[in-house]
Design goal:
about 325 residues; 13 helices; globular; about 40% helix; Diaminopimelate Epimerase, Chain A, domain 1; 12 strands; alpha/beta; inorganic pyrophosphatase (n-terminal core); 2 domains
Length: about 325
């Protein structure tokens, strides 16, 4: 962030601050938002977190998740907070389109907008921008941001637990986008007193019975393997959502099971929502699914983890995805295991 000193000056006097993150927030979105929230609270700021939609239930163990304002549930209150805010932190997204109607409220305000994000191709909507596509997660960037403010001494176990959770989930348990820098940061968080085993247990071993039954159903009945393209696809229908009482966050990690297969390089999770069909893409090695997501499914993300959507329905979206794979056959062969 080039103008970090200007932001330091702004933050030197207590302000009304809003922190927001993307729709369908994941561990990194919630972890970075809460980590920054607890940090800013130390300096007398009035801080509110607003998410466009509900967060997954498995993240409820993080301190003060119950104070998060959900726009879908409280639009008027959210609007009042945005209009009152002097500074708005935009975390883990690179375009106001990622926060839907909340973005329409934020864009015209005179507030100072701060974007901290690690996705490709950020829009130029913020007064202060910290963009690092080499970072594993926005939580890693929040740690760096706090250090850049010369406030590393203010890190504590509560902030550390939030940041560790986001790093853990966004790296797939330290499999993706790791670096020596990241592990040094994680080491610092553990030295603060973060119990890494406890958090891993809370994140990964908190399934309800329906989650395990859903996994069995998906792997047995909704998985398609296309060996020619080293690709696997998992689908979920609206009926599946009803039959298994699927809520937000219940499908987290399903797509990664396909990548456990030795010869699979690309995994797709395609599922019906009330008005759109969503697609989540994952890959191994050097093959970039970000290109597929941005070119064909109005989305984007990272090289090994991206997503998008379509309006054409579940089966047509599956057919479209399969139809574009031949375009990438050369790259898939290059990255064969």
């Amino acid at each position: 962030m080039e103008n970090i000193n200007d932001l330091k000056t702004l933050l030197s006097i207590p302000k009304d601050i809003v922190i927001t993150t993307h729709r369908n927030p994941d561990g990194d979105a919630i972890g970075s938002s809460l980590g920054l929230y607890h940090f800013l609270n130390k300096f007398g700021h009035t801080v509110k977190i607003i998410t466009p939609s509900e967060y997954p239930a498995f993240l409820a163990f993080l301190s003060d998740t119950d104070k998060i304002v959900i726009y879908d549930e409280e639009p008027e209150y959210s609007k009042n907070l945005v209009e009152k805010a002097e500074i708005i932190f935009c975390l883990d997204f690179n375009s106001l389109e990622r926060i839907d109607k909340l973005g329409e409220l934020i864009e015209p305000t005179n507030s100072h907008k701060v974007m901290i994000d690690h996705h490709l191709y950020p829009d130029n909507f913020a007064n202060f921008m910290m963009s690092d596509t080499t970072a594993s997660s926005t939580c890693e960037m929040i740690y760096t941001f706090i250090c850049n403010l010369d406030q590393k001494k203010e890190l504590d176990i509560t902030i550390g637990e939030c940041l560790y959770t986001g790093i853990l989930t966004d790296t797939g348990s330290f499999k993706y986008a790791t670096s020596a820098r990241l592990f040094r940061i994680v080491g610092d968080l553990i030295e603060l007193g973060v119990d890494d085993y406890r958090i891993q247990d809370l994140v990964f071993n908190s399934m309800e019975e329906k989650h395990l039954r859903l996994l069995g159903h998906v792997l047995n009945n909704r998985m398609e393997i296309i060996n020619e393209y080293h690709t696997g696809i998992i689908t979920l229908t609206k009926q599946d959502y009803e039959d298994f009482d699927i809520k937000r966050g219940d499908t987290e990690g399903l797509v990664n099971y396909i990548l456990k297969l030795k010869k699979i390089k690309v995994a797709a999770f395609i599922h019906e929502q009330p008005t759109i069909t969503k697609i989540s893409l994952r890959s191994k090695g050097d093959f970039s699914v970000q290109v597929i997501a941005s070119k064909y499914f109005r989305g984007g993300g990272h090289k090994n983890a991206s997503g998008g959507y379509s309006y054409i329905g579940l089966r047509p979206t599956v057919r479209k995805f399969i139809s574009v794979l031949p375009e990438f056959m050369g790259e898939l062969k290059k990255s064969e295991i």
